[in-house]
Amino acid sequence: MKAKSLHFSKGGDVQVIASELGRVLQCVCDQIPPAYPCENEKVIFIGISMNGKLPGAVDHFCKDLNPGRTKGVAFYVLNNTGSTKGLEGIIETMKKNGVNTVGEPLGVAVKGSLFKKGIPTEADVQNVVEWATKIAQA
After folding, report:
1. Gap between the Cα atoms of 53 and 69, Å rounded
2. Fold of domain 3-137
3. Which regions of the chain are under pLDDT 50?
4. What are φ and ψ of residue 25, in 5° steps?
5. Domain ranges in the chain?
6. Model confidence over 40-51: pLDDT tens digits?
7. How many C-alpha atoms does 66 have within 13 Å on its Cβ side?
């Protein structure tokens, strides 16, 4: 399967999950913007750490996607509530460009404290891997 696992977070908390996806699905793992452009990918898994507003780098990257780069994108979002709110606009823009969203966006609640960002647990990582594996096999 031709796939990529991309991630974006200021604190690096999504990289743990993205790296494991790359290992399990045997695909390239990179940050957004990626070092090499996407070409003829079946699906791009995009992990984002956000609370309601899509980061600019992810927004710009997704707006440039077209059917020559990928057939579909699957989003997973890390935040303290597990909400995927904020993806609606970019999903609509990608659809207009001919790129579909694959599966339902997955929200992962990662609890942190007042002074420390949350770190995904092993259960969080396995939850995302199971979700991505189902998408990859479809």
Report:
1. 25
2. Rossmann fold (3.40.50)
3. none
4. -90, 0
5. 3-137
6. 999 999 999 988
7. 2
